[in-house]
Amino acid sequence: MAYIYAVLHSPAYRLRYAQFLKVDFPRIPTPPNLEFFETLATKGAALIEFHLLESSELSRLITRYPVPGDNLVDAGYPKYLAPGQPDPVTGTPLGAGRVYLSSDDVKSGRRGQYFDGVPPEVWEFQIGGYQVCEKWLKDHRERTLSHDDLIHYEKIVAALAATTRLMTEIDAAISAWPIS
Questions:
Q1: What is the pLDDT of residues 59-77, one digit of tens each?
Q2: Residues 148, 118, 71, 145: what is their CA dihedral angle, to the nearest 10 degrees?
Q3: Which residues contact 87 (CB under 8 A, 6 or more apart)?
Q4: Percent of the chain beyond pLDDT 70?
């Protein structure tokens, strides 16, 4: 199963067989040798752990949530600012991507809250036509996020970062298509 999961997460496989994947069940190539199978199965097993949010690596979060507040996802949010875009408060270029849940409110003194350190490729990562990071927060609009919700989102970001890394490693392990 892990071998199949790895193959299905290969960007090159998805591109090469895109039309076929739209109309039929995916064809899974037979591995040419045991070493190849084990390499992809190991990467597939890691992907499965990340996607179930069960990987021990998820204890090392890649984001920060630096602004305390009410943790309310405002209407019209989330909003993403990529690295290099100006910080809304200081105007200095951002060193890392940020996902904002809310904006500053000068009248009340409320500061905008955000997740800092969200890479652009993670923000843009799609499953089924939806950007995962954006969709999760949109589904929580006008709701207050609990501490567990905040940690859950940060784990999603870390899992997607690992997914993009593993997808690249899977493609590197597959020298050419078709493999069988």
A1: 999 999 999 999 999 999 9
A2: -30
A3: 81, 93, 94
A4: 98
